[in-house]
Amino acid sequence: MSRVIFDAIYNSIIRGVVSKWDSTRKIQSVVADMGDNYNQGEVEHFQAAGFASKPAPGDKTEAIYVAPSGDASKRLCIMVAGDRDKHLQVEEGEVAIYAPDNPQAYIKISGDGSIVINTNGQVKIEDSSGQSQPVARVGDSVVVDGKSGVITSGSSKFQSS
Predict the structure, then answer these.
(1) Residue 19 phi, psi dihedral angles, 5° rounding
(2) pLDDT tens for residues 67-111?
C-alpha cells in the first residue's frame, strides 16, 4: 500500500483530547491534542442541532476527530465526552441530559415516558426576555404573605393575578 493511501486511512478518524475551547465563532472550535506530540490547533466542533455542550478541557475530556478524505488539514471534531469518571449512569431505554462536571444535576427520560429532573440547586423556568422565577417543590421553604412554611404536597389549584 502506498504511503499516501496509508496516511489518508490513518488520518481519517483519530481519538484525542480537548485542551481548549473557542466559542467566539459561529461554530464552536476546540484545540485538539491527538497524542504523539501532535497538536492540530483549532478544529471546528460540530454538535447536534438544539444541543450545546462545553465540558471542562483536560486529559479526561476526550474527542473523536474525523478528516474527510483523510485530509488532516480539514479535520473536524464530531463528538466530545467529558470526564469518564463523572458520567451519569442510565438504565436500558433511558436517555439523560446532564452537566459533565455535575452528574447529580440531570433530566432523565425513561422508556415508560416518565421524566425526572434532579438538581442540588434551584429549578427555574425562564421566559423569552430572560426573566425567571424559581419553581417551588414539595419540601421547599416558602414565604407567602409574610408567613414562612414548607410545601408539604402538590396542588392543582391556582389563582390568577
Answers:
(1) -105, -15
(2) 887 777 888 888 888 766 777 888 888 888 888 777 788 899 988
**Grid cell digits, residue 81:** 465526552
Q: What one-letter code names the amino acid at 11?
A: N
Phi, psi of 5 (to 5 degrees): -65, -45
Residue environment code for 124-157, b if the CB has 16+ CB neighbours within 10 A, otherwise e: eeeeeeeeeeeeeeeeeeeeeeeeeeeeeeeeee
At 155, phi and psi to the nearest 5?
A: -150, 150
**What's the mean pLDDT when you consider all of the chain?**
80
What span, in angstroms and rounded, lies between the C-alpha atoms of 99 and 9? 34
Smallest Cα–Cα separation from 52: which of 80, 25, 88?
80
CB 54 within 8 A of CB 100: no
Q: How far is CA 67 from CA 9, 92, 131, in A?
A: 9, 32, 43
pLDDT in tens, 106-130: 899 988 888 888 888 777 788 888 8
Residue 33: predicted pLDDT: 80
CA distance 76 to 69: 12
Question: Domains of the chain, with CATH numbers?
Answer: 3-84 (2.40.50), 87-150 (no CATH)
pTM of the model: 0.64
